[in-house]
């Protein structure tokens, strides 16, 4: 456990002033009441610094520590190593600035952090979407950093425990570990199944075809739906095949020039709860595909494209698009298509 690496070499700074002491006491009391937390193979507990670290911090032993501008906490996460064997990992997490005086806001942060720790421990062990994941101290660090960033950029997002918890769970580093709520997965899978059933192929020209693959050839983490939709921790995936054809032969058949298959992340967990909007995206996508294929064909770039190049699920992150027409316009802009 290295405080230097956790604080990027920040110096010790002055001793605690009288108005800083309530902050340290509040943190110490709140964490002492909340920890340890245990679930399955995981336990999160307070710990103290080794002797060599204490000397660098004027004798501070922890678990709550301070440096020049920040307040930290020393934690021990008992978890699993890469082989599945138990392992203790000590880590120093940054909680707040020493100038923090809003103790109610601090209580909100700590309560949200405890909730997130419980969620991460539970989700790490979940096997409904494949093999269990490994919870690491870096996940806890990412959750706190996400909340601290949100408190600076959008203070309203961290005023309640629920909002602060949501801000933490948005950390990109957590998305490989979190399990989407089951009640959002089944309706989304059913909607995608219905859409792809009605769009076979998604688009086709004499020279090119794009379709989904119901039975991919590679191993899957979870059983796919009837139309090949696979639910994963990252969201809903589908395998897309693109096929380029040569000119018809003497029998009227179109020989295949190239065929590629890729599994694509189609819907991330944040979009699962708004299935109607996802379907609007797919409608806009299928309407735009003939334009993008014609555009790339005219520029002699079609042969260079892989299946992933024909999807832009990132437009679901945009806030304004709601209808198929909105998404078609957003996709045309993203692909830099000429007006048509």
Fill in the keyword field for this structure.
340 residues, alpha+beta, 10 strands, five-stranded antiparallel β-sheet
Distance linking N and C termini: 60 Å
Listing every helix as H and every strand as E from the N terminus to the C terminus, the arrangement reads HHEEHEEEHHHHEEEEEHH
Rg calc: 26 Å
Number of helices: 9
How many E strands? 10
How would a crystallographer describe the biggest sheet? 5 strands, antiparallel
Gross morphology: elongated
Task: Classify the secondary structure makeup into a structural class.
Answer: alpha+beta
Low-confidence stretches: none
- How much helicity do the residues have? 25-40%
Please, what is the average pLDDT?
A: 90
How much of the sequence lies in strands comes to: 15-25%
Give a written overview of the molecule.
By secondary structure, the chain is of the alpha+beta class. Helix content is 37%, strand content 20%. The protein is built from nine helices and ten strands. The protein has helices at residues 3-7, 21-34, 51-56, 103-125, 137-153, 161-169, 182-197, 275-298, 324-334, and strands at 37-39, 42-46, 64-66, 70-80, 86-97, 203-204, 208-212, 230-232, 235-245, 256-267. Strands 1, 2, 3, 4 and 5 form a five-stranded antiparallel beta sheet that branches. Strand 8 and strand 9 (235-245) form a beta hairpin. It is elongated. The mean pLDDT is 90.
């Amino acid at each position: 456990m290295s405080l230097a690496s956790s604080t990027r070499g920040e110096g010790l700074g002055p001793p605690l002033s009288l108005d800083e002491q309530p902050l340290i006491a509040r943190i110490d009391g709140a964490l002492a009441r909340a920890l340890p937390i245990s679930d399955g193979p995981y336990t999160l507990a307070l710990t103290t610094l080794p002797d060599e670290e204490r000397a660098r911090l004027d004798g501070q032993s922890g678990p709550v520590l301070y440096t020049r501008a920040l307040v930290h906490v020393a934690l021990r996460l008992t978890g699993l190593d890469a082989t599945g064997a138990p392992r203790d990992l000590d880590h120093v997490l940054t909680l707040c600035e020493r100038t923090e005086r809003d103790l109610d806001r601090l209580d909100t942060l700590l309560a949200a952090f405890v909730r997130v720790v419980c969620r991460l421990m539970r989700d790490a062990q979940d096997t409904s979407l494949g093999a269990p994941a490994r919870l690491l101290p870096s996940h806890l660090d990412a959750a706190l950093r996400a909340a601290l960033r949100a408190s600076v950029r959008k203070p309203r997002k961290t005023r309640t425990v629920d909002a602060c918890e949501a801000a933490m769970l948005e950390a990109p580093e957590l998305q490989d570990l979190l399990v989407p709520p089951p009640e959002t997965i089944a309706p989304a899978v059913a909607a995608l199944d219905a859409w792809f059933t009605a769009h076979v192929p998604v688009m086709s020209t004499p020279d090119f075809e794009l379709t989904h693959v119901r039975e991919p050839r590679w191993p899957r983490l979870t059983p796919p739906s009837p139309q090949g939709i696979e639910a994963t921790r990252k969201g809903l995936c589908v395998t897309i095949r693109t096929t380029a054809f040569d000119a018809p032969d003497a029998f009227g058949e179109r020989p295949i020039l190239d065929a590629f298959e890729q599994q694509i992340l189609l819907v991330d967990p944040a979009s699962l709860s708004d299935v109607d909007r996802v379907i609007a995206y797919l409608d806009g996508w299928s309407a735009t595909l003939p334009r993008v294929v014609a555009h790339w064909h005219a520029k002699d770039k079609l042969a260079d494209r892989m299946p992933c190049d024909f999807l832009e699920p990132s437009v679901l992150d945009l806030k304004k698009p709601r209808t198929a027409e909105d998404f078609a316009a957003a996709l045309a802009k993203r692909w830099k298509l000429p007006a048509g």
